[in-house]
Amino acid sequence: MHDDATRPARRGDEQPGRRLWIDAAAGVAGDMLLGALVDAGASLETIQAGVDAVIPGAVRLTQTEVERAGMRATKVDVTSLVPDPPHRHWTEIRRLLSQARLPGAATRRATAVFARIAEAEARAHGVDVEQVHFHEVGAWDSIADVVGVCVALEALGVHTITAGPVALGSGTVRAAHGEMPVPVPAVLELARGWQVRAGGQGELATPTGMALVVALAEACEPLPDLVPAAVGVGAGTRDVPERPNVVRVVVGTQTSPTERVVLLEANVDDLDPRLWPGVLAGLMSDGALDAWLTPIVMKKGRPAHTLAVLAAPDRADHLMARAFALVPTLGVRRSTLDRAALERTWRTVEVDGVPVRVKIGTRAGAIASVTPEFDDVARAARDLGEPERSVLARTIASADAAGYRVGRALE
Ligand SMILES: O=C([S-])c1cc(C(=O)S)c[n+]([C@@H]2O[C@H](COP(=O)(O)O)[C@@H](O)[C@H]2O)c1
Ligand code: NI
C-alpha cells in the first residue's frame, strides 16, 4: 500500500529543473539529437571530455553549421581515431560506462539507453539479453552519440524530458545484418508503446536515435507548456529537398512546479458493486497515486461508474494491466497530465496524550494545508471514548497551537 506518510521523495517533489522537448517528427538518429543539443548551447568540449572518459582517445567530435532543406542546423560528426572491432558485447559497453566518471545522471541515462537497445536486439534476434552483441549500434560513434547526448543533457541542466511522435521512414537499408526492411527490427521493438508516424523516404529513425527517445523521455506528448530558453536544430547526414532532415529540441523552464502523471479511465456498467472497494484498494496497493469512482449514466440509460486511476509514468503500464484484470472492461483510456503537488511532510501532535499525525502541505516553504490523518483521528477517538468529530476539531486546534497554521513558514 502506498502510504503517503512514508512515501519516499519522488522526482516531482524536487525543485523543478529545465525541461527538454524533442521534436522527432522528421525522424531521429543519435548524431541528430547530439547536434540539436550542441545547437541549443551544450559545449562540444564538455561533451568530448565525457566521451573520452568512457572511450579514451577513440573518437574526435566536430561541429559544423549546415543547411537541411533551407533550414540552418548543427551537424556533429564523430571521427574514429582507432580501429573499431566488427561487433561489441552489451556487457562490455555496460562495463565501460560503469567505470567512467560522468557528471550527474549521465551514467544512469546512458546505461538505460544501451539497456533498451540490448533488450530490443535480444527480442529481434531471439537471443538472451546478456548474450547480445551489437554491430553498428555498438561502434565508437554510437557510444559517442549516446554518451554525448547524456553529457549534453547535464550541461544544459535538463531534468525532465518528453518527446513528440517519431517518424520511422520506409524502404530498405543495408547494414551489417544484410538488407533490412525499414523500420528495421530493432527500431520497431524500441517503438513499442510510443507514438510513431509511418511513411517517409528511407531510414528516418535509427536504433540509437529511437532508444535515446524512449529511454530518456518520460512521455510522448505535443510541445508542453514552458518558457523556452533555448532551441536547437540538429542535422542528419542526408539533405533531401522536400523535408528538413533535422531533430529539434526546445529547452525551457516550467511555468509551475508540476510532475507528470498518467490518468487511466474506464467506464464500467457490469461489475458487482460489492467488488468496487476491493478494486480500489487493489489498485492503491499496486502503486496507484489515487483511484476513485465517478457515477455516470451510460448509453441506453444504464447507471455505471467511471474508474479513474492516477499513476506515476513508470507504473502506468502495470496499473493498466491490473485494471484490465480487476474490472470487466474492453478498453482503458490513457492520458498524460501535469500535476502540481504541494510538498508534503508529517508532524505529530497530541490530543489528551494520544498521538495524531498531521499532514502538512507547503508551497515555497509556507504552509498551504494542514490535514489530520483520519485513521489516527479514528483510533484516538476510540482510545479516548470521544466522537470522531470532536477529536478532529481538537487535533486541528493542537496543530494550530503548535504553529502549524496556513500561511506560516514551516520550521
Ligand atoms: O548494430 C546493430 S546490432 C543493428 C541492428 C539493427 C536491427 O534493427 S536488428 C539495425 N542496425 C542498423 O545499423 C545502422 C546504424 O544504426 P545506429 O543506430 O547506430 O545509427 C542503421 O542503419 C540500423 O538500422 C544495426
Ligand atoms: Ni540487430
List keywords for this structure.
411 residues, alpha+beta, 11 helices, 21 strands, disordered N terminus, binds the ligand O=C([S-])c1cc(C(=O)S)c[n+]([C@@H]2O[C@H](COP(=O)(O)O)[C@@H](O)[C@H]2O)c1, EC 4.99.1.12, Pyridinium-3,5-bisthiocarboxylic acid mononucleotide nickel insertion protein
Q: How would you describe what is shown here?
A:
It is a single chain. It is globular and about 80 Å long. Strands 12-6-1-14-13 form a five-stranded mixed sheet. The chain has three domains: 3-254, no CATH class; 258-340, Alpha-Beta Plaits (2-Layer Sandwich), CATH 3.30.70.1380; 343-401, no CATH class. The two termini are 29 Å apart. It has helices at residues 30-39, 44-54, 90-99, 106-125, 140-155, 185-190, 207-216, 276-285, 316-326, 374-384, 388-401; strands at residues 18-23, 59-68, 71-80, 88-89, 133-134, 158-163, 166-170, 172-175, 178-181, 196-198, 202-203, 219-220, 227-235, 246-253, 258-268, 290-298, 302-311, 333-340, 343-351, 354-363, 366-372. The protein has 411 residues and is of the alpha+beta class. It is built from eleven helices and 21 strands. Helix 3 runs antiparallel to helix 4 (106-125) and helix 4 runs antiparallel to helix 5. It binds the ligand O=C([S-])c1cc(C(=O)S)c[n+]([C@@H]2O[C@H](COP(=O)(O)O)[C@@H](O)[C@H]2O)c1 and nickel (II) ion.
